[in-house]
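task queued by scheduler; priority normal; single chain, no ligands, no partner chains; default sampling; output format set to C-alpha cells
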Amino acid sequence: MHHKMLIIVLMTLLSGSLPLRAADSAATKAALFQTPVTTKHSVTINGAQVSYEATAGHLTLLKEDGSPRAKVFFIAYTKTGVSDWLHLGVLGPRRVAMNDDGTTLPPPYKLVDNDQSWLDMTDLVFIDPVSTGYSRASEEKDAKDFHGYNQDIESVGEFIRRWISDNKRWASPKFLIGESYGTTRASGLSEHLQQRYGMYLNGVILVSAVLNFQSIDFKDGNDLPFSTFLPTYAATAWYHKKLAADMQALTLEQVIDQARTFAMGDYTLALMKGNTLSDTERASIIDRIAKLTGLSRDYIDKADLRPVIFRFCQELLSDKGLVIGRFDSRYTGTVADRLGVSMERDPSHHPTIAGCFSTCINDYLSRELNVTTTLPYEVLTGRVWPWDFSNVQNEYLNVAPNLREAIQMNPALRVWVLNGFYDLATPFAGTEYTFNHMGLPASPRGNINMTYYPAAHMMYLLKPVNSRWPLLRSLQEAVHRLGRSRQRSLPQGEFLRTLLRVHEAHHRPHLMT
C-alpha cells in the first residue's frame, strides 16, 4: 500500500495569447498532446542527494460515455529509492536563478538546482487547469465549459480523483497548495473532494490567499477594500521611506499594528458614515490616513478618504516619476505619463518575473523533461476570460464557507495561510478579515495557522524566505506526528510543527498544486 505523502499544486495561470489554430492534419493534431514521459534525475536538497523521477504529460478527462472532455497537463515528481510560480520558485527540484533579493538576472534566464525543494519530504504533482499551461479542452469550442468557478472546481477535482486512482495513492496523506486564485480553488476543492468523492485531505496550504473577493474589489459602494488594503499601504510607505520621521523610526511590525488598528476601527467607522461624517471627524481621518500612507492630505481629501490600489501605486512615488508594484510593492518602475492617475504596468511583474519564469518553464519542459507538444505554454493567459462567476450572481465570490464546511466535516484538516506584508494583490488584512468572518466554531479554529513575511505575493522569491522557508523549517516534525494526532485537534501553532514531514520512513505524503 502506498503511504508516501502527496502535495497537489494548483497552478495559478489565469489571467494573452493568440487563439489555438485548428490542426492542419491528423499528424499535427496528434503532436499537440503529450503522452506522459518519465525521466530520471537527482538533486541535492538540504545537503543530501535525492534521486527522483519526473513524469510530464497529458491526462485525458472523460465523459461518462468514454468520449474525451479535455487534456490536462501535469508534472509529477516522485522520489525514488525512498503552478509555474510555485513550481520553479520554491517547490520543485529546479528553480529560476535569481538574486537574493528576489530580483531577476538579465536574460537569457536559466534554471539551477533547488536545494530548498520539498521533494525530499513529499511527492509533488503540478496541475495546469484547462486552457492554462499545456492543458486544453478536447474541442476548442468547448473550452468555455471549463472557464468558471464551478466548472474549474469540477474539472480539477476530476483530475485529482483520476490521478490518485490511476497511481494508487488513495492511502497517501494528501495536501493541496495553491497561490492567489489557486487559494480560491484549493479552498473550494477541499469541500468538493470530500462531498463528491469522499476524498478527505490532511491539509491545505494557501499562499497569498483570496477567499472572499469583496475584500479586494474596489467597486462603487464597497468600502471593505479600503480598510483591508490600508495596512499594506502603510507597510509600503514605510519601506519607501515616505512616512514622517517618527513613523519611520518604528519597526515594520509596529507600523502595521497601528495601521491595522486604525483600519479596522476608526477608519471603517468613518467610511460607514459616508456623507454624515462631520468636518472635524473628516479632517482627523485625513490626517491619520496621511500619517500612515505617506499620501498628501490634499490627495486623500480629493480621493474622498478612499485611495484605490492602482492609483496608490501611481501616486506614492509620483514625485520621483516612479510607480510601485502590485504583486510586490517594494518594486518600482518608470512611468511614461507622469500625469497619469492609474498605474501603467506592474513593475513587479514586467520586467521582473514574467519573462524569466516563462522562458524557464518552456526550456525546462522541452530540454529536461522531454515534452514535445507543439502547443504554446499559457502563463497568466487571457484564454480563460471571461471567467464565469454565474454561481454568485449579484454577490461576491466567497469560498470561506466551503473551507469552513470542509473543516467541520473533517476535523483533522489543517490550514496554513502564508501572507506577505508587501502584497497589494491579496493583502494580508483582507485575509485576516476573511478568516475572522468565516463563522468557524471555536474548537476547530486551532486548525488554522497564519504566517507572515516581510515579502510579497510571491514571498518565496526572497532568498531569506526561501531558505527552506523559515516556515518550512518550523514544519520539520510534520507528518511524523500526523498519525499520532489524527484523533485529536492540534492546538494553535502546533500545526507549524506537524504539517510536512515523513510520518515514518515509508509514510511519504503527496502534495498537489
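post-processing summary
- The first strand starts at residue 5 and ends at 10.
- The two ends are 23 Å apart (CA to CA).
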